[in-house]
Write a structure and sequence with these properties.
Layout lengths: L54 H10 L10 E8 L20 H9 L1 E9 L4 H10 L6 E4 L2 H9 L7 H6 L2 H10 L1 H6 L1 E2 L2 E2 L2 E2 L10 E5 H6 L8 H13 L1 H8 L7 E3 L14 H6 L8 E3 L5 E3 L4 H15 L12 H9 L3 E6 L7 H7 L8 E4 L12 E3 L6 E4 L8 H13 L4 H5 L23 H18 L11 E5 H9 L6 E4 L4 E5 L1 H8 L2 H7 L4 H19 L13 H4 L2 H7 L5 H9 L6 E3 L7 H23 L7 H27 L5
Parallel strand pairs: 1-2, 1-3, 8-11, 13-18
Antiparallel strand pairs: 3-14, 4-5, 6-14, 7-11, 7-12, 9-10, 15-17, 16-17
């Protein structure tokens, strides 16, 4: 059998979207499938080698494909971009907009590119405004979209520029990420040997969910972390039976105690959803397609695993374990309940530890909140795995076919990368790279995130913390590592050549900075300095400043909730970042273990744009699935009617979708045979 190469052949539908709906479609539906041939991307004129692999060859390559190059004459480029509210605490002036941001000045100085903005909107209406501009034949030169359908239609209409040369102009890290870790992303954006988008690099394993549960509640009811769904139900029952004791111990009103919570949109994923429980039962709540023993793809919507998950949720609901308000609350509202200390059990991704879970742990109104987590529980003795996409593209950077300089998209992406990820950005590009001067990373057009940066960050920070501690930086830092400095003090110290690590604005005409005495102590000891300088600046001011005091206390056996000798407030600040990004059994450790094959995942085998059958029947079937699932969970309909739902689902379009998906699957996997 040939080596599997499915991810290098991504086919998407070329037929036009059909009009009509399930209830009244007068035109004859065409559910044939025509596979697009991605072809073979033309090789670069000079072989690519990173500088780390071969510095001399890299120099030859970069002579042909320079990362940054100033145009001899001004180049005007129009942009479409999101403009949501800025994050607090970064020190970005309130007056900063996409049109006034300092990146525009940097692009002019470094590349001689004049940026102007044609489509500017918040995320709630951006795609709508972009579509309107496209329809009016007023498409920007460069823009991003999260819609695979928008991308494929523009590509097939001949509206997009060939970005092959732009691709080869990307910096070493971005090129290596595409070629080594995510080659399927580039192929999915090709047609007939040409590349029509620079897709966002996203680690697909970040979507995997785990079980999170309150350990202090487990202690109150004298139970252990559940290893199976059956044990999870038993724990939930104990939480229900002992609400009064939990309320008395935690300070939360008994009426607010929620053993298990999730949000109302059952057929959607994300944290605080039903997805983790469905995964534990061998299915997915989001309509994934899994490969069966018959060699065909089958919908999770109608699977035995989904029926099992619905049975579990119905049991939880009837026993008072599942939040009775789940039918009306959003994911944000569940998150708020978790933060307030009301919730005992939930499923979520890696990042919840630094957000809602940490909010509960540090809350002054919740006593003794302590969380533990585990991989998904078994169901009826069988271990199932988190469901992740076979391929994940979170966005497409596109260039109009009318743009005279499509390669500029890569240069703008490179410029953003060198500002955001380079510790010496200020020394290279000047003060305009500072948030205080109007640089806001979310407003930068044509950016490509380093998709593997977080995995490397996790390994680097964990290693440095271990080695710093071993090298002697292990005295308890009860006062923390943050030091408030005024702008005048910062200027004075910088005039003397002292390094100032700014952490965040402190609201008093200055910043919190990394404690200079601690930095001096580190730099005075060669072994400490060598380890400390392995951290990037961002890691020094986030992971180290917040996480290291907690790490030292934790290593010395000091608990968050000890009545005597408990962690100080400064030490406690590091709980979230430590367990999210440093702990070897923490949030990102799980992502890395999945990505490197140390832990198993289950894959949604369908990817790409919506097929015509999905366009015609998809919305109706999704609505029917969500409605029926909800009724089964709350007991409005008996689960014995699940088989009838399956028959109706298949009769009203499900079979048509599944058949077309399998034609797609066979075409996509033709090279495997």
């Amino acid at each position: 059998m040939k080596k599997k190469t499915t991810l290098l052949l991504v086919c998407v539908l070329t037929l036009a979207m059909l009009a009509g709906s399930l209830s009244g479609c007068t035109a004859k539906e065409n559910f044939d499938y025509v596979a697009i041939n991605p072809g073979t991307l033309a090789a670069p004129e000079v072989e690519f080698k990173t500088a780390a692999e071969d510095a001399e060859q890299n120099a030859k390559y970069r002579e042909k494909y320079p990362i940054l190059k100033k145009y001899p004459q001004p180049v005007k480029i129009t942009i479409g971009i999101l403009e949501d509210d800025k994050e607090a605490g970064l020190g970005v002036p309130e007056s900063t907009t996409v049109r006034t941001q300092s990146f525009n000045k940097i692009a002019k100085e470094v590349l001689n590119i004049d940026l102007s903005y044609k489509v500017v909107a918040t995320s709630s209406v951006y795609e709508q405004k972009l579509s309107a501009a496209i329809a009016a034949n007023d498409m920007p030169d460069m823009f991003a979209t999260g819609s695979a359908d928008t991308f494929s239609k523009l590509r097939d209409d001949g509206a997009l520029a060939d970005l092959t040369q732009a691709y080869y102009t990307l910096n070493d890290t971005l090129l290596e990420n595409y070629q080594k870790y995510m080659p399927e992303l580039i192929t999915s954006c090709m047609k007939d040997g040409k590349l029509y988008a620079l897709p966002q690099q996203t680690n697909k394993y970040t979507t995997a969910q785990r079980l999170y549960i309150r350990k202090d509640w487990l202690d109150i009811v004298d139970m252990k972390l559940p290893k199976s769904v059956e044990e999870l139900i038993a724990v939930g029952e104990a939480f229900v039976a002992h609400k009064k004791e939990i309320a008395e111990a935690t300070g939360v009103k008994e009426a607010n105690i929620v053993p298990f919570s999730m949000y109302k949109d059952i057929t959607f994923g994300g944290s605080y959803s039903a997805e983790g429980l469905f995964n534990a039962c061998g299915s997915s709540s989001t309509g994934a397609y899994f490969l069966g023993d018959d060699g065909r793809l089958h919908s999770s919507n109608t699977s035995d695993g989904s029926k099992a998950a619905l049975e579990v949720l119905n049991t939880m609901y009837s026993k008072g374990i599942l939040d009775p308000q789940f039918t009306t609350i959003s994911s944000t509202q569940v998150m708020n309940k978790v933060s307030a200390g009301y919730v005992g059990i939930m499923f979520g991704e890696w990042w919840v530890l630094k957000h809602a879970v940490w909010e509960a742990v540090k809350s002054s109104t919740v006593k003794g909140a302590e969380w533990v987590w585990s991989d998904l529980p078994t169901y009826k003795g069988e271990q199932n795995y988190p469901v992740v996409p076979t391929m994940l593209i979170s966005g497409y950077n596109l260039v109009s076919a009318n743009c005279a300089h499509p390669e500029a998209a890569a240069m703008l992406a490179n410029l953003f990368y060198d500002i955001y990820y380079n510790d010496n950005a200020e020394g290279i590009y000047g003060s305009n790279v500072l948030p205080s001067k109007g640089f806001y990373y979310q407003y930068v057009p044509m950016k490509i995130w380093d998709g593997m940066a977080s995995a490397q960050e996790y390994k680097r920070v964990q290693s440095v913390f271990t080695n710093l501690y071993a090298a002697g930086l292990n005295e308890r830092m009860q006062g923390g590592l943050k030091q408030p400095l005024t702008n005048a003090q910062i200027s004075e110290y910088e005039s003397k050549g002292e390094t100032i690590y700014k952490i965040s604005a402190n609201g008093d005409d200055g910043f919190y900075c990394l404690n200079r005495e601690v930095v001096a102590q580190i730099e005075a000891v060669p072994a400490l300095k060598a380890e400390f300088d392995k951290l990037r600046t961002r890691e020094k001011i986030l992971h180290f400043a917040e996480g290291y005091p907690y790490y030292v206390a934790y290593k010395n056996g000091i608990s968050m909730n000890d009545e005597e000798g408990a962690m100080t407030e400064a030490e406690q600040e590091g709980w979230g970042i430590y367990h999210e990004m440093i702990d070897d059994d923490g949030g990102y450790a799980y992502v890395v273990a999945l990505a490197e094959g140390e832990k198993k995942a289950k894959y949604n085998e369908f990817y790409g744009t919506n097929l015509t059958s999905m366009q015609v029947y998809g919305d109706y079937l999704n609505t029917q699935t969500s409605t029926n699932y909800l009724r089964y969970i709350i007991g409005k309909e008996p689960l014995s009617k699940f088989d009838s739902y399956v028959k109706n689902y298949n009769k009203n379009g499900g079979d048509t979708i599944e058949n077309q998906i399998n034609v797609w699957y066979q075409a996509t996997h033709a090279s495997d045979k």
